[in-house]
Design a protein that fits this description.
heterodimer; A: alpha/beta; 5-stranded mixed sheet; 17 helices; 13 strands; 46% helix; B: mainly alpha
């Protein structure tokens, strides 16, 4: 029933949307005014949609009301926050809002989702004047602006939070094996993981059944070898670097046996739990938010973060053309809806949220790194954050093409369909080639359709 | 509520003269036509309007969307999206594995429906006669059915994890459980969980059917010396035909359209063996924003469910006609 219901809802929404649009065009008028100069938002409520924070739900609610109070003092306007549970929920919300011309004024979107949001054409491209109203481009860390738009003149996303990926490692286990620090190459990491596997402990904790993790590994190993996956409008999944990346990633469990066989069914939190229970030495592809769980686990105080390897499989150094990417450029951007009738207020709110003071508070509440350059500099001195801040500066943006979400799904699908082989302890080259070829077709046709 | 009474068809008595070709038949026929004209058909108007608004118009729009290139880049001006006739249907078959998904959905729906039939009927028969604690047993049997599919999916996902409870139990009896949530076994995992959660529908309809059997018939059969087998064969089962076949149609439609359970159990992208049509349609629409393509898939799934529905409606119409002739 759900598929049909989904379709009916979508079609119904279109009918309603047309009606609503007709109504708003003829009758509605802004409930507050964005007068020039000093903003007067009395009586206006700005609507903001952000991802739900499952780690700090209570704090998030408190933060919402604190922001609203502060903004009301500044401008007279209130801020009403709404949350979404998954990116697909947000996409649906964006689709319905863009079509009906009403909905949240500001959306918080993930960095890799920004190209998709940009392609909908539903968000304001920021002019030089807009950037001035936010406090200038200079207030942001330059790296965080790399995924705000296809180029510097067409930007929609305003960097709000940074969540670079790093690798956690168990200091005790490494010390016992005589390893002083994690390797900086994937081959080295595999070798160390092999050394650390035994007595019920595995070298690596990897979430093979996660809906997002797998593509990040494949992308990282590929770009380190010089293949950005999408080059211009050409998808390069059939490039040998990608096959090597898949073989390395799948091989950890299938042939190297350095990952718990149960990991074929793991999502990201299960990998964190295994590491937290002291059953794995390395936990690659986690952000600073894993700290909350790990500090309450059996390895509290016994673990540290390090950069993930930046030297691709089969190499001893970053090859010519390769990029030493430690992580995807990860975090949240804020975008302003084109249909918003409170554009200046929205920009004023973003200015407030990206100020050093607000970013410091956000970091202290949620553990997410600032995009504000002054605040980032301020945090650099904290040794506990060293690896994470380092990773933020070595993050590389994923390709800014409209079909990127589908490219991601196609890359994850290769791993999903390889799981049976993985569980049987093998990586079948012919099967892998055929899956990658399918992914190439799907991804290329998605990129071809992108505007 | 009393206003609904005149909308009922005229009593069977008025239809009877049609069968016999007597001079009075013409007069009776005229009377019936007058009665027809006097039916307050306008009472159907609110329901009809609502049906048009909630079902017919969205359905027509969905069919139209399936013929245009509506995607992430064209949806804001959907009326101007390019018309591409049947391209979405071709693409769905050629590139997106639509036929594979249709086959998986139908196989799975048929197997689940056929297996739940004897389980539901047996449970209905077993709880028909009074015994101590019957109310409790009847309620307990309904638990799988009243649990939301999301909860059922989540619980079974935990049970069927590699290294989960199911494999742990199997290991105790010396069987290697293997991989349940991906690979060839995942299809059977889906069938198993769907059977577990959906069989009480047939049980409920069997109970409803059993309660409509007049106790006098049992008495008469007993007086005629019928044993329980004969009673079951000649008294009970013929009277269960109606409700149980309705149950079969509903169960099939429910299974073929099941989205939540496979979505929660296996996630997306779906493993190939459980790439059922509703999840594929969802992925195209809400993950890939290919609305035209997913509308084409939805239209195909509508056609798919229209087949058993048409068979059922035809069967019902035949029985109505039989009743009239009686």
């Amino acid at each position: 029933m759900k598929a049909r219901r989904g379709r009916t809802v979508a079609a119904g929404a279109i009918v309603l949307a047309l009606g609503v649009q007709g109504c708003t065009a003829s009758t509605a008028s802004p409930s507050g005014t964005d007068s020039g100069g000093g903003l007067n938002g009395t009586g206006v409520t700005l609507n903001v949609l952000m991802g739900a924070n499952n780690i700090y739900p209570v704090q998030q609610k408190q933060w919402f009301s604190a922001v609203s109070d502060k903004f009301q003092k500044q401008t007279g306007a209130k801020v009403s926050f709404d949350t979404f549970a998954a990116p697909t929920d947000e996409l649906t919300k964006i689709q319905v809002s863009a079509l009906s011309g009403q909905g949240p004024d500001i959306y918080g979107v993930g960095t890799t989702f920004t190209p998709t949001a940009y392609s909908t054409g539903a968000f304001e491209q920021l002019t030089a004047d807009d950037w001035n109203k936010i406090g200038g481009k200079d207030r942001f860390l330059p790296a965080t602006l790399n995924i705000s738009g296809p180029d510097a003149d067409h930007q929609v996303g305003i960097p709000f939070a940074s969540r670079p990926f790093v690798m956690a490692y168990n200091k005790e286990l490494l010390a016992r094996a005589g390893i002083d620090k994690p390797a900086d190459s994937w081959d080295g990491l595999r070798q160390e993981a092999g050394q650390l596997t035994g007595n019920g402990v595995y070298g690596l904790a990897v979430a093979y059944a996660d809906s997002f993790d797998p593509w990040k590994f494949i992308w990282a190993m590929s770009i380190q070898a010089g293949n950005p996956i999408v080059d211009g409008r050409t998808v390069k999944l059939t490039d040998p670097t990608v096959a090597t990346a898949y073989r390395t990633y799948l091989g950890w469990l299938a042939t190297d046996k350095v990952v718990d066989p149960a990991a074929v069914g793991w999502k990201n939190p299960q990998a964190i739990a295994a590491f937290g229970a002291g059953k794995a030495a390395f936990l690659p592809m986690v952000s600073a938010s894993s700290k909350v769980t790990l500090d309450k686990s059996a390895v509290a105080g016994k673990y540290a973060y390090a950069l993930m390897p930046t030297i691709p499989p089969g190499a001893t150094g970053v090859p010519a053309g390769g990029k030493a990417a430690s992580s995807i450029l990860s975090g949240d951007n804020l975008v302003v809806a084109k249909y918003s009738r409170h554009r200046d207020l929205a920009l004023a709110l973003i200015k407030m949220l990206t100020s050093q003071e607000a970013q410091d508070e956000y970091y202290r509440t949620f553990g997410e790194l600032p995009t504000n350059a002054a605040e980032a500099k301020h945090l650099e001195s904290d040794p506990a954050l060293a690896a994470i801040v380092d990773s933020a500066s070595k993050s590389v943006g994923t390709p800014f093409v409209g079909g990127w979400s589908q490219v991601q799904v196609a890359m994850v699908n290769v791993v999903v369909q390889s799981i049976p082989d993985l569980a049987a302890g093998k990586v079948d080259d012919a099967q892998l080639r055929s899956l990658v070829a399918d992914a190439q077709n799907t991804a290329q046709s998605a990129v071809d359709k992108a505007k | 509520m009393t206003t609904a009474t005149p909308a009922k068809p005229p009593p069977a008595g008025s239809a009877r003269p049609v069968v016999g070709e007597t001079p009075t038949a013409g007069r009776a026929g005229r009377r019936r036509r007058i009665a027809d004209r006097q039916r307050p058909l306008w009472l159907l108007l609110p329901g009809g309007l609502l049906t048009a608004l909630v079902i017919v118009i969205p359905l027509l729009i969905a069919v139209y969307i399936s013929l245009i290139d509506l995607n992430l880049y064209t949806f804001r001006e959907w009326v101007r999206a390019p018309f591409i006739a049947l391209r979405n249907y071709f693409d769905a078959v050629k590139d997106e594995g639509l036929l594979h998904s249709v086959a998986i959905s139908v196989e799975y729906a048929v197997i689940v429906t056929v297996v739940t039939l004897p389980i539901g009927v047996a449970a209905g028969l077993a709880t028909q006669n009074r015994f101590h604690g019957r109310g409790l047993v009847r309620s307990v049997l309904l638990i799988p059915y009243v649990l939301p599919a999301f909860v059922v999916g989540t619980i079974w996902r935990i049970i069927l994890q590699p290294g989960g409870i199911a494999n742990g139990l199997l290991k105790h009896v010396g069987v290697y459980g293997g991989l349940w949530l991906n690979g060839p076994m995942s299809f059977w995992a889906l069938v198993l969980v769907q059977i577990w959660s959906s069989w009480p529908l047939l049980y409920l309809l069997t109970l409803a059917g059993l309660q409509s059997v007049d106790p006098v018939l049992y008495e008469a059969a007993t007086l005629d010396g019928a044993d329980w087998r004969a009673k079951l064969r000649y008294v009970v089962l013929p009277r269960l035909r109606g409700p149980v076949s309705l149950g079969l149609v509903i169960a099939f439609l429910h299974n073929v359209n099941s989205f939540t359970l496979p979505f929660v159990l296996f996630g997306v992208p779906s493993p190939r063996d459980v790439a059922v049509l509703p999840v594929l349609t969802y992925t195209e629409s809400f993950q890939n924003s290919a609305f035209g393509l997913s509308a084409a898939m939805a239209v195909v799934s509508l056609l798919l469910i229209a087949v058993p529905l048409a068979v059922y409606l035809r069967a019902v119409r035949l029985t109505v006609a039989e009743d009239r002739l009686r």
